[in-house]
Amino acid sequence: MGKKLRISSKTECDALIIGAGGAGLRFGVELLEHKPGLKIVAVTKVGHPQKSHTNTAQGGLAAVDPEDPFDDPVYHMFDTWKGSDCSADQNIIKKIVESAWEQVIWLENHGMHFSRNEEGRLSKRTFGGHTVRFGEASAFRAIYEADRTGKGIMDTLWFEALKGGISFLNQSVATELLFKGNRCAGAVIFNQKNGKFVTVLSKVTVLATGGSGQLYRVTTNCRQNTGDGVGLTLRAGLPVMDPEAVQFHPTGIVGPGILASETLRSVGGILRNKDLEPFMERYAPAMKELAPRDLVARAIENEIREGRGVVNPDHKIEHVWIDLRHLSDYVHDVQIPEVSGFFKKFVNLNPKKDLCPVRPSNHYHMGGIPTDEFGRVMADKRRPIDSLFAVGECASASFHGFNRLGTNSLLELITMGKFAGQKALEYLDQGVESPEGKPGEKTFGLFSQFLEANGKESVFTLRRELQSLMTEKVGIYRRASGLEEAMERIRELRERAIHAPIENKSLLMNQELILRWELENLLWLAFATARAALERKESRGAHFREDYPERRDEYHHHTLVRMERFGRLEISSRPIDMSLYNKKGAHWERFGILERKY
Q: Counting CB atoms within 10 angstroms of each CB, which of 143, 175, 405, 410 has the fewest?
């Protein structure tokens, strides 16, 4: 079978975008604004860029209005730093926050229809962990388009991409990064629609493949979010950063796991246990439902653990309630129509009259491909790879540290897409490089293994076993014994996966083959996540160790994991940037190592 696999064609371009969601398209549009006419190729695994996961984002985009008499960028920086459990990089926080309002204006000037109030000004809503005056009161900082902000961003960027002439390879995946020395020369692409492998050589390449939610049994993520960019990076011999930093959104709809946006709590939704007690005041007396996500998620899990959860009769899953019954028809029909409709559509409940079942659902990966402040992928803690960038959820700059505040993800993808695009301009005057080695050799070895396997395992069953294992042992609560067991079982799953057969041996539109490739990415990421979680003997943000429940200063660093061969890890660290604190500027004392109380 291996002899039949070959590169069908080769093409060259100025920029190769791997992942055509919000971050990737913002990168491409930035290039075109400075240099119209560039040849840009965007690769997306889904059938159309509008199916990208950015499209599902609901709540808003954090940005401080310069004319706001109450808010200030330094408050947003403080909230992001404190929310990250003092583990985000302060140079990244400053750069992104100070660019936030400029990006809101950019989006509106390019056609996005942000919601406005009766005075005609941009509407704002509160979100968990966002405050004014360094924690004194909740901040109205999230700019939004009803409860479908991500779709507004994608509509805007899609139009600009079409206008600029970006070409798209839909239903295609990048299987191998190509290099010439310390420079990325492009990638090998597998086109599902025609079953062909092609080499795309480029002056600059950006990874924007999104998250890895399918690592868990219940997730708010789309089914295509399988950690592809991280798997690709690891197999290229490059490190990933903070893979143990996985966020669980407090309110996933019981059953489908679909996100019930934090918007519901920002407009006044109340979390209640089986006794209808509004329990958040016991966990976060000041901010209650608007505490950061990791705190709210653990509060819900604790209520369930202590017997105050409700057993769902249909799914046999314990949950709590979110109470929206007291909200006005205006809030339901104008501010949260889509999310309110999810409860009607997926669980047959009317949020105006019924309590709605929710529990934590895997949501976001704060870790990912390590980059510098310009989005350049780092080969180690000091050296960037020339002409290779990563943006969006697959990347880690790190703006979120070990806990992301709601609305900061859309802010990061739109700003880092811009910053990376600006930096990438420096590489466009260079020619396209011919890569070292034989392009496709690694790809063909892997895909031949997939196609030639003749065991009796089921790829789908293995994926479900992995998801259940990660949920149970590497979920919201973790301990050494569970993590060690997880690593051993992931090794076993990988060994079984090697022999998992694919009945359809064709390359043309072979979904079985793609599922097997996705499983490979998930297995690599799962092992790196469990090993990094075992290494971090403390609790920090969303990473909570029951056997080490306190944050420890000796782990005040980022984790770097390198695993060019499966199961053989090399763990190192990267310092957390403390520049706001060290420069002793205005309010510098707010950016030291803080106690997290809300």
A: 175
